[in-house]
C-alpha cells in the first residue's frame, strides 16, 4: 500500500475512533453518492445529475450511516458473542426487521425525492416492485450479514455494510431506471 493510502487509512481510523457516528454518516453518504454516479453512468445518463447525486449522498449521510451505527450497537447489546448460533440470530433479526424497512424506505425515497414523482405513482410502483426486491434482498443480504457479524469488528460493520449497500443501491437504481424507461 502506498504511503498516501496508509496515511489516509490511519487518519480515517483516528476519525472513526474519535467521532464514530459522524465518520460513519460521512462514509455512508460518500458511498451512496458514488453508487448513484456509477448507476447514472451504467444507465446511460450522459451528463451527471448533480441534484440526484446530492440527494443520494444526503440519504446515506442522514439515514444509512446513523441507522447502521445504532443498529449494530443494539445488535451487540442484544446478542453477545460471535458463535454461529448468535450470528444466525443477528442475521435473522436483521433480515426480518431492518431489511424490509430499508428497502421500502429506499424505494419511497427514490420515487418521491430523487425522481419527484407523486405519491400515487410511487405507491403503485412500490406495491408492484417491492415483493421482488425484498425476495432478491433475502437471497443476497443474509450472506453479507453473516460475514459482517462474524468477521467484522463493530467499528467496521457500517463501513462494510455501506460498501455493499452502495452495490445494492446500483441494482435498485438500475431497476427503478429500467421501469421508468419502460413506462416512457
Automatic annotation (TrEMBL):
Pfam families: Mpv17_PMP22. One of its GO terms (cellular component) is membrane. The chain crosses the membrane at residues 53-71. It is found in: Membrane. Keywords: Membrane, Transmembrane, Transmembrane helix. The keyword DNA repair does not apply. The keyword Iron does not apply. It is a multi-pass membrane protein. Its main location: membrane. Belongs to the peroxisomal membrane protein PXMP2/4 family. This is Peroxisomal membrane protein. It comes from Jatropha curcas (Barbados nut).
Amino acid at each position: 500500500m502506498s504511503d498516501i493510502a496508509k496515511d489516509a487509512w490511519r487518519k480515517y481510523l483516528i476519525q472513526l475512533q474519535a467521532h464514530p457516528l459522524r465518520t460513519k454518516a460521512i462514509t455512508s453518504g460518500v458511498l451512496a453518492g458514488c453508487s448513484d454516479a456509477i448507476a447514472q453512468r451504467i444507465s446511460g445518463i450522459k451528463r451527471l445529475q448533480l441534484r440526484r447525486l446530492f440527494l443520494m449522498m444526503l440519504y446515506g449521510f442522514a439515514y444509512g450511516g446513523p441507522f447502521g451505527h445504532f443498529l449494530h450497537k443494539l445488535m451487540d447489546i442484544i446478542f453477545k458473542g460471535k458463535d454461529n448460533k448468535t450470528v444466525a440470530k443477528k442475521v435473522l433479526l436483521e433480515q426480518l426487521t431492518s431489511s424490509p424497512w430499508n428497502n421500502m424506505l429506499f424505494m419511497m425515497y427514490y420515487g418521491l425525492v430523487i425522481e419527484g414523482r407523486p405519491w400515487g405513482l410511487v405507491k403503485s410502483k412500490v406495491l408492484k416492485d417491492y415483493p421482488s426486491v425484498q425476495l432478491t434482498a433475502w437471497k443476497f443480504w443474509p450472506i453479507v450479514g453473516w460475514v459482517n457479524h462474524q468477521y467484522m469488528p463493530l467499528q467496521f460493520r457500517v463501513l462494510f455494510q455501506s460498501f455493499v449497500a452502495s452495490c445494492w443501491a446500483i441494482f435498485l437504481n438500475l431497476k427503478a431506471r429500467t421501469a421508468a424507461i419502460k413506462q416512457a
